[in-house]
Amino acid sequence: MKVARILAMLLIAGGLAVPVPAGQFGFLRGSNRAVIIRADDGRTITGLIVEADQRPAPAVVLVPMLGRPKEDWQPVAERLGDANITAIAIDLPGQSLAEPGELTAWHTVIGATVGYLAARADVRASAIGVAGASLGASLAVVAAAADPRIRSLALISPSLDYRGVRIEGPMKQYGDRPALLLASLKDPYAARSVRELAASGGPREMQWSETPAHGTVLLSREPALIRSLVEWFRRTLAVN
Q1: Is residue 21 situated within a structural domain?
Q2: What is the DSSP letter of 83?
Q3: N or C end: fewer C-beta atoms under 10 angstroms in the chain?
Q4: Quick check: 219 and 226 in contact, CB under 8 A?
Q5: Total of domains in the chain
Q6: What domain range includes position 137?
Q7: pTM here?
Q8: Beta strand pairing status for 33-38 and 10-13?
Q9: Residue 7: CB partners within 8 Å, gap ≥ 6?
Q10: Per-residue model confidence (pLDDT) at position 132
Q11: CATH number of the domain where residue 169 is located
Q12: In this predicted structure, what is the pLDDT of residue 29?
C-alpha cells in the first residue's frame, strides 16, 4: 500500500468535513483513512477507506457480517486500492440480532455510503459496486434494488431469508446489472441460495469453494477468492 494514501481523518456530515482525532480509531495500518457518514435517517456510519492512486476511479462499498467489524474487509480493501478501485468498508448499525423489520432497514447505511462516494469528485459515480458477506450480502441486494447507482454486486455466503430480510424479490428488481454469487459447497443454505439467486435473471456468475467457512471467514481462509472479487469489480466497473 502506498504512502500517498495516508490522509487526514474526516467527519463527513451534511456536506461538512471536520478533522477527527486520530486516537479515536484503531485501524491496523496508517495507509487507511477513517470517515463517518451521516445517513438521511440520522444514523452515523463509520467507514475505513482506501483510495485509488489514479482518480477519478471506480469505488466499492464493503459490508460485513452481523457481529463482525469493518476491519474484516481490510485485506480486500487494500487489494482493491492496489487495483485502482477506491474501497470503503463500513460497520453495520448494530452488532447483534434485531427485529426483522429493523434488520431490513439497515440497508439505508449502504445507500448513504454510495451517496457519499457518488458526491466525491475523485470517484466515478457511474462505477460504484457493493460487496457484502452473510447479512451484509442480503442488505447489499436490498440496497441495490432501490439504488440504480449500484452497478455491480458481489455476494459472499448470501441467504435467501436472513431473519426476515428476504432477497429473492430485490434480486429480481436488481435486474440486468451483474452479480457475483460466491459460497462454500460445505455451507448448504448459502449454496442453495446462490443457485436460486442465479436463476433470477441478468448476468449472474457463480463461484464455489470447498473450504468449510462462511462470509468473510471464507475469504480469510481462501485468499484466492479475494483475487476473484478484485477481478470481478475490475471487469464489471470497467477499470482502465
Answers
A1: no
A2: T
A3: C
A4: yes
A5: 1
A6: 52-236
A7: 0.86
A8: parallel
A9: 33, 51
A10: 98
A11: 3.40.50.1820
A12: 34
Domain-embedded: residue 27: no
Q: At what angle do helices 135-146 and 108-118 cross, to 10 degrees?
A: 60
Indicate whether 30 belongs to any domain: no
155 touches 187 (CB < 8 A)? no
Pull the grid cell for residue 193.
Answer: 441460495
> What cell numbers appear for 184 in the block?
462454500
> How many angstroms separate the Cα of 96 from the Cα of each of 32, 42, 93, 101, 111?
26, 20, 9, 14, 21
Q: Looking up cell 477506491, which residue turns up?
A: 86
Whole-angstrom Cα distance, residue 97 to residue 20? Answer: 30
Q: Is it true that the peptide bond before 56 is cis, omega within 30 degrees of 0? A: yes
Q: Per the structure block, which three cell numbers stand in for 51?
A: 483510495
Single-letter amino acid code for the residue at 171: M
pLDDT at 79: 96
Using the Cα atoms of residue 148, residue 150, residue 151 and residue 157 in order, give the sign of their dihedral: negative
Count helices and strands (H / E) in the chain: 8, 12
Profile the chain (240 residues) by mean pLDDT over runs of 10 residues.
33 32 34 82 89 94 95 96 96 74 88 96 97 97 97 98 94 96 98 95 95 97 96 90
Q: What are the DSSP calls for 2-50, one per residue? A: -GGG----EEEETTEEEE--GGG---S-TT-EEEEEE-TTS-EEEEEEE
